[in-house]
Design brief:
The complex is a heterodimer of chains A (about 475) and B (about 350). Chain A has about 475 residues and is mostly helical. Helices cover about 70% and strands about 0% of the residues of chain A. The longest helix of chain A is centred in the first third of the chain and has 38 residues, at about 70-110. In chain B, strands 2-1-3-4-5 form a five-stranded parallel sheet, sandwiched between helices. Classes of the chains: A mainly alpha (about 475), B alpha/beta (about 350). Chains A and B meet through helix 8, helix 9, helix 12, helix 19 and helix 21 of A and helix 1, helix 10 and helix 12 of B.
Amino acid sequence: MLFHTTTFLFFFLILLAILLLLKSNKQNKVVYLVASYIFYMAWNPAFILLILASTVVDFYFGKKVFVSKSRASKKRYLIFSVIFNLGLLGFFKYFHFFEQNLLFIFRLFGYEPNWVDINIILPVGISFYTFQTMSYTIDIYRGKLKPVSSFLDFAVFVSFFPQLVAGPIIRASDFLPQLKTKRKIQFKREYLLLILKGLFKKAVIADQLGVFVDAVYANPAPYPSSIIWLATIAFSIQIYSDFSGYTDMAIGIANILGFKFPLNFNKPYFAKTPSDFWRRWHISLSSWLRDYLYIPLGGNRGGTLLTYRNLMLTMLIGGLWHGPSWNFVVWGFLHGIILIAFRYFNIDKFLKEKKSALWTWASWLFMQIWVLITWIAFRQTNFQDMIVTMKKFVLFDFDFSLQNIGLGRLGVFSTIFIVALFWFLHVYSYKVGGIENSWKNWPMLKLAIVLFGVGVILFFLWPTREVPFIYFQF
Amino acid sequence: MDKFEVKGHKPNVVGDLKVSPKELDLKNLILIIPLLLGVLVSILMLPELHRKLPSDFKRTKLILEVLSGDADVAKPDAVILGSSIAMASVDTKLLADSIGDMLIYNLASTGQEFSESVLFYPKFNHPLKVVVQFVSFDELLKAPRLSHQKIRHFRLFGYEPDTVLKSFLLKDDWEYLFCPDWKIRVDSRGILIDAINSSMRQFFRKDLNLAALTTELYYPTPYTVRLPEAKYSAMIEKYNPPKVLNDIELDSNFVARLKKVNEYLNEKNIKFFLVINPVNPSLTNYPRRLSKKIELALKAQLPDLKFFNYYDLLEDENFIDYCHPAPSGAKIITIRLANDLKNELK
């Protein structure tokens, strides 16, 4: 069930109607849980069993970790929980990846194993909810969190539908306190505007750009560098608008239901350094990786070389989290390299000390071009095509001829238009401190006129095909 | 420490987590009205915008006006139909000069495959006597479906479908042709994106005679200059099938539709000729020997159909790109077509 479909609209309206009739917090929570399970089962009913299993296991092991007296016993229960969660993730997400790589190695040695091929479907949202449940048990083990006594509360925390399939990854400490009191529905202007903003980002920006990106990236060889650059810039905007659009809608929907969600994106394309980028991009994942991977690995506490190793490992695993494919590892590697390089040359400190506009701009430009290169690795799963695309991107051919690039069908000019529209709105949003926060104070008439215009734009730029959210596949 | 608090982890959410909002703020839902109003007004003004905005499909309007007699030109005695290959293949002024005493229009248009051309057939009336339908080799093997985008443009140009089309079209296309007006409007919302691409292409592609698309009735091709060699080669590589085509089998559905069209036009006393598009010999995986095979297949399955096979008529230098004939190619095709028609119309 996608947020930008009429099916979801009806689902949400029915849910709101039911919630408005309920009196107690417990009734509310039961409805959240049932609604969340229906939301998930609309995709594939069978996989709700996985969520249930994950819920039961972590609820049980969380308690066990807490009540265990000895450190060893606590550790044992934690390991069970982590193995269970990583096992689920490993089997459903990475089984074919490991199988294919093992097959490749066997073949190198001239051995052809006779394996029975099994078809494994990747359950939507598994990467998100397993990380969420793992963090819960780990926090209890670390003594930072007490286990929740109500199974219902925990089940709602694991499966809450606005963030179930594509995040943001929520910490128990952020979410569970909100279940203590009955959440009340509220249609604040900024919530409605946030949903509208997400819808606009997804439908008008991401899905429109996706048509061009898909066409160019499917076969990059015939295109000149100028088109490869345009497609890569378009993809960088597509993936941001798609994912942050989803997050905006998720946060807006949760807000209407009376919940608060963490910020997941903070204008990452304004980042001037790699660490700045990771403080702005998919914040809930990068902070998760920091707290549960980078710091346990030793963080920056073990000297320079170990810090570099920890950074690189975190980025490689972060890359692989996105999907069972080597291109994501390359993506992580490129981010790891630049993080290490900036740390090695102490560029963050240099920029702070210099305070020169020229250096700031230069750093921003360099960082964004590097991010574009990393997006090529992210988007191109085929290695040969990845190399062709990167080569054309880096070794610019100065071929601006518009012949032989199927301008009409490809939509070069509409892509330029959408890219310009995105940057205009992005800078405007930055200047006013977020469109939803700025527009909420406008007089009703002014807002109504603007919304009328938004309605016109939404109609004409709403894509003619339904496109799922990119991060659903992760 | 609170039960749920994580040491060192500051909650990343705005506001007090335990405080639930008090007011419903239902009045804000009124803001949905102007938004919906914007959508509604867009739906209402879409046909008008469709008429005003530039589009690659404006030629369809011209063709419909010529056939209905609404255009400021005489009605034709013969017409050429087909895709951009047909547009680039026949200069009907030269054709008419060779045949004599006939007004012939080239009413081919971009992407006009057979399934689209049939939409024009019920509009044929006096004095039209001859229809020459160009089809591609690939169409004969696997007839493409009629694009719904094309159907929408026809409907928005005021096209009124005839029930006879039921036997010429696939069920799904036929149903869409008759779908409600509001659906056509909603599905046509991409016209703004099309207009951006179309108008900017007209601005930037000075090497193309794009004005010909909306005005020219005799030799409407925008393609006149051969691509630079590197681009030409890249295009050949891109469009050459990955494997050599050896055996062919005509699409049975396409054959059945051709048969019905032939019978329908014969009943209207209009002579129908099928032309197989020329194929660029540089596309080596379309071997020359297939030409004979198509002829045999067509003769066997459609004995009453008159057709001209131009599959292997042109050489590489007669093309401007992988498929469109250059003016030199058009001259060869036109002269050959004139001779073939003269023989048949004797």
